[in-house]
Write a structure and sequence with these properties.
This protein is mostly helical. It contains ten helices and two strands, in the order H-H-H-H-H-H-H-E-E-H-H-H.
Length: about 280
């Protein structure tokens, strides 16, 4: 019973973090679409799959840089990178809600991270802004087909990085050991549980891409398929954690999340929802 209660508490917090990040992210995406704001990855054609390939290559390059600095430079680089990421995403998200105050809040949150480094809730707030800002901006900058290519390749990469090269495990340990705002921390009596922000960013990328595609028709047309895809992702995440707990093994969440999201997207497509 103790184990079940502990797991229920973990899933409850997971749901809170998921709901917050995805909800804020969709709101940010809606506002950015209204302002016609996107980022150019390779070219301005958001339906060109080359943008998805390039995004994967960017991730591979960043991973290489991360591993290099992890081996030779330790803390300084990671603190600086976290500060820049938190500032940029916080400024973006807050600016949507409180125009003119984004930069101030970005600076404030970075300062708080340095001042109370061990406070997990300040870190969780920073992680929430990071997921909402990055996921929304990438999602509205890619079309559906490039996103499908991107998340499929990323799911395969995740499997290779965890089971073959195992460098993802090393990176996760470094992130947790340095208390970086690239994980969510769920405190518990036994030990703190860590959830990688990538498991929340990628669903938001797919969800906001669908939202962007369907929003040309109506709010209802965009919200329903987006909600279904995000819910499917949450089920995939919980399913992965359940398997990890039962089998006592470490698994990447993205492969199962991707399977569920693509299945949900196909269902929406087959019943005539505007998801392409």
């Amino acid at each position: 019973m103790v184990i079940n209660l502990m797991r229920f508490r973990l899933y409850a917090w997971l749901f809170v973090f998921f709901l917050l990040t995805q909800g804020i992210g969709v709101m940010v995406a809606s506002a950015l679409l209204g302002e016609n704001v996107t980022v150019t990855i390779v070219n301005s054609n958001k339906n060109d799959p080359i943008n998805a390939i390039a995004l994967i290559l960017y991730i591979l390059v960043f991973t290489g840089v991360f591993l290099f600095f992890m081996k030779f430079f330790k803390r300084g680089f990671f603190s600086l990178f976290e500060a820049l990421a938190v500032f940029a995403t916080t400024s973006l998200v807050v600016e949507v809600v409180l125009p003119g105050l984004g930069v101030m809040f970005g600076v404030l949150l970075v300062a708080l991270r340095f001042a109370v480094r061990e406070n997990v809730w300040i870190k969780n707030i920073a992680s929430t802004f990071a997921v909402a800002g990055a996921g929304a901006l990438i999602g509205i900058s890619l079309g559906i087909i490039p996103v499908l290519v991107f998340i499929s390749l990323l799911a395969v990469y995740d499997l290779i990085a965890v089971f073959k090269t195992k460098h993802m495990v090393k990176m996760a340990k470094a992130i947790v050991s340095q208390n970086l705002a690239f994980t969510f921390t769920i405190p518990a009596k036994e030990h703190d549980f860590q959830l990688g922000t990538g498991d929340l960013v990628i669903p938001l990328v797919f969800g906001t891409a669908v939202f962007s595609s369907a929003s040309r028709l109506s709010t209802y047309a965009s919200i329903v398929p987006t909600a279904l895809i995000l819910f499917a992702s949450f089920l995939g995440l919980v399913g992965t954690l359940h398997i990890c707990a039962e089998k006592k093994i470490a698994l990447p969440a993205l492969p199962l999340q991707t399977l569920y999201m693509v299945a949900s997207w196909l269902f929406c497509f087959l019943i005539g929802m505007p998801v392409l």
